[in-house]
């Protein structure tokens, strides 16, 4: 049984100092609960928020891999002996900038990362950022974890790849806006049901220059049942997952045995027309 805490934060736009301090407070609060979490998840862009205008001036917001935002999370993970999925941070790599989440273990060490694969071109997210290309499943003491960031949840190919690679859960970090909360909930439930796996998704709340964000951070089991869900205000959403349920469900509906990949067309690999 794994206890999870989702930090559904109200991010203060372009104020990293405030956001760092506030996240430290929220992590302290989460760890003081009777059911101490084994894993804490933050939303996308938790240290700065974002707007489409930022994407044309990312040199003012980008951080190195060992930058201040990652350092805050590493310190908190080590202090509380808790796993942290570090939302996402605009990160400078040798070959360019990416929107990246970091997986940090109980000792405060980075043991995995995922860079957003599907960048939202309608808001110019692909102007500063390189598309992520890696779809790693990380085997941890908690279970096998794959990652998505916000817009990724609209692309079933990514979640199916994680399922075929043995993931127990997809952990989603997001800045999903109003008024699309119905899309958020429906897409996440579909990703859980169609892959017979857990979905653990943390979204932000509050205003930004782009509008407002819908919250509803959520934990969904492989049947599509909601274990825990937040509202539209700042809060810590908690729930418990049992990855042993996955095999029980897959033994009742043999979806992966009944797949017919040899009959599927390759159209999805072709460029858009």
Task: Summarize it.
The chain is built from five helices and 16 strands.
Structure report:
With 273 residues, the protein is of the alpha/beta class. It has a single domain (2-257), classed as 4-Layer Sandwich (Nitrilase/N-carbamoyl-D-aminoacid amidohydrolase), CATH 3.60.110.10. The chain has five helices and 16 strands. It has helices spanning 16-31, 68-80, 156-164, 181-195, 245-250, and strands at residues 2-8, 39-41, 63-64, 83-85, 89-93, 96-104, 110-115, 138-139, 144-149, 169-174, 198-203, 205-208, 211-214, 218-220, 226-229, 235-241. The strands form three sheets. Strands 1, 2, 3, 4, 5, 6, 7 and 16 form an eight-stranded mixed sheet that branches. Helix 1 (16-31) runs parallel beside helix 2 (68-80). The mean pLDDT is 95.
Percent in strands: 25-35%
**What would the CATH topology be?**
Nitrilase/N-carbamoyl-D-aminoacid amidohydrolase
Radius of gyration: 18 Å
Q: Roughly what is the average pLDDT, rounded to an integer? A: 95
**Number of structural domains:** 1
Q: Which series of helices and strands comes N to C?
A: EHEEHEEEEEEHEHEEEEEEH
Shape: globular
CATH homolog superfamily: Carbon-nitrogen hydrolase
Unreliable stretches, pLDDT < 50, 5 or more residues? Answer: none
Per CATH, the class reads: Alpha Beta
Describe the largest sheet. 8 strands, mixed
Instruction: Give the total of beta strands.
Output: 16
Query: What's the helix count?
Result: 5
Distance between the termini: 47 Å
Given the helix and strand composition, which structural class is it? alpha/beta
Task: Tell me what the CATH architecture is.
Answer: 4-Layer Sandwich
Helix share of residues?
10-25%
């Amino acid at each position: 049984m794994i206890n999870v805490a989702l930090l559904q934060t109200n991010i203060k736009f372009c104020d990293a100092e405030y956001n760092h301090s506030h996240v430290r407070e929220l992590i302290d609060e989460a760890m003081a609960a009777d059911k101490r979490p084994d894993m804490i998840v933050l939303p996308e862009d938790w240290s700065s928020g974002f707007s489409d205008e930022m994407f044309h001036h990312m040199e003012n917001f980008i951080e190195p891999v060992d930058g201040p935002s990652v350092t805050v999370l590493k310190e908190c993970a080590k202090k509380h002996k808790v796993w942290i999925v570090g939302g996402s941070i605009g990160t400078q790599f040798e070959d360019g900038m990416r929107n990246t989440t970091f997986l940090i273990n109980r000792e405060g060490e980075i043991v995995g990362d995922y860079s957003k694969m599907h960048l939202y071109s309608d808001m110019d997210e692909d102007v500063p950022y390189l598309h992520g290309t890696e779809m790693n499943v990380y085997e941890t003491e908690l279970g096998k974890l794959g990652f998505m960031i916000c817009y990724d949840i609209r692309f079933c190919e990514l979640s199916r790849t994680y399922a075929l690679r043995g993931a127990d859960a997809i952990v989603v970090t997001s800045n999903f806006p109003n008024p699309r909360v119905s899309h958020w909930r429906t897409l996440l439930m579909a990703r859980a049901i169609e892959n017979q796996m857990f979905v653990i998704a943390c979204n932000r709340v509050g205003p930004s220059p782009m509008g407002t964000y819908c919250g509803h951070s959520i934990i969904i089991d492989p049947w599509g049942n909601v274990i825990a869900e937040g509202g539209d205000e700042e809060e810590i959403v908690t729930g418990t997952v049992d990855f042993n349920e996955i095999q029980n469900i897959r033994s009742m509906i043999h979806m992966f045995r009944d797949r017919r990949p040899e009959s599927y067309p390759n159209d999805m690999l072709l460029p858009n027309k």
